[in-house]
Every structure is written in structure tokens, then in C-alpha cells.
Write a structure and sequence with these properties.
Length: 290
Amino acid sequence: MSVRTATTSAAVTALLGTCVLLPVTQAQATGGQDSPVVYAHRGASAYAPENTLAAVDAADDLGIAWVENDVQLTKDGVLVVVHDTTLNRTTDAEEVYPGRAPWAVKDFTAAEIAKLDAGSWFGAGFKGARVPTLEQYLHRVERNRQKLLLEIKSPEIYPGIEKETLRVLREEGWLDRSHVKQRLVIQSFGAESVKTVHAQRPDVVTGFLGTPAVADLPSYAAFTDQINPSYTSIGADYVAAVQKLKGAHGKPLRVNTWTVNDAAKAAEVAGFGVDGIITNNPDVVRDATR
């Protein structure tokens, strides 16, 4: 297990009990595998506050190679890693900034968001955890030698977020050949956002979050490499229909389903033939499907 802060290590140990955590090599997101690739949803978010650096480290401690995150833009144009378009669920924004409801991410500067506690809501051991910038998040993922499934969140709220995301990725070295080929996927619920990323960087692997009708899949295949649906919306027939088509890079479309958190459901969706499973409990899913 990699060395972490005492807070993170203690919290993960307490939640996982006395089990031995052994690193497991995950297959590449762009290649085949015998078992589904496991993606730690917002980091290992069952064990540490979502989208924080502690959640990245918790995934690494479990031997999980791939982490998923969400990016949004602050009022002053800085990319931060947070899921909700408002700050009050996962930070103390209401207490720190009373009277600024609904505490929308877009209404706060990066410096203001940096003051927020993004850990106490999850557990006292994570008090003082911060909302990371994308730059900070990338540094941690790189330090851990992990891989990134990056979601552009609510792109309709943030004009130009695709260009800014690619700019930060480029400046941090994440658009070189090795990262693009093996360690990065950009996804979104917004089809136009995925199209924009593909148009600006055709070499980057992209994913569409959703369950398009089978008849519409060929149009999605023109600009994406993955169809990533909720597990509640798919079966073996749908997965097979997706995988019959070739995506934007001339390889079979892949299916990464979300958010599967228990062993029985993980085994079921693995039986559908999915390529990957996005989960808050990556160790549980890994063990149920390998």
C-alpha cells in the first residue's frame, strides 16, 4: 500500500477492516480485457469524500488504476473538480458564505472555493479536505500513476469548458502520446460537448454518458469511442448492439456502465459483456468480476 496521510490511511483501514489490499493491474481503456475495467467513481467515493485527493489516494490504496472525476468552471474561469453544480451538499459553503444561495459553482471564484471544507460532511477524519482544481487533481493522479476518466459536467452552463479542459490537460502533459493512448478518456452527458472535444482533439478517446436508442448509435459512433449508460438502462442485447459498431477511432464501441456498487449487480452487468464498470466501491466490483 502506498504511503498516505494518517487521516486517509486510518479512514480507509477502518472502513475496509483487516482485509489485505493487493494492487491489481487494470486493463487499458482502449484495449480488450477478460474482466471489465473498474473505474473508481469520483475516486473511491465509498471510502473518502468524493472528488477529493483523498478519494484518489483511496482508489490507489485499493490497487485501482482508473479514477473518474467531474470538472466545472469557477466564476473566474478555473477548472475545479466537483460533481454538483452547487457547493452546499459536499462543502460547508452555506456556513462560510451565508446569503449566497444557491451556492452555484459558477458564482464563486477559485479562491473562494479553496477556502471550503469538502471533507467534514463525509467524516470527521477528512476535515479540511479541499475542492481540488483540475491541475491539482492531475498532479495527484500522475503521482499515483493512475489513469483518468474525466467528465465535463453540465457543459451547457460553461461555454468554452471543453477548450479550457484541453488547455489544462495539455499544459500538464496529459495530451502527449502515452497519456492519450493509454491513460485518458473524456466523457460527458452533453453530446455537443463530446463532439467539441473530438473536433478539437481527434486523437483523444471520448465517451458519451447515456443510453441512445439502438437506431441512433451510428450517429454517436461518428464522434465517440464509448457509450456509457446507467446499469438500470441496459441488457446484454443493448451492449452487443453497441459493440457491433466501430467508434470514432475505428475500434469497436465500448460500454462502461454506472453506478454499480454491489457484488451481485456487478456480476450481472459483467455477464452482459460490458467493457467497464464505474463504481463507488471499486474493490467490491473488482473482486466480484475477476
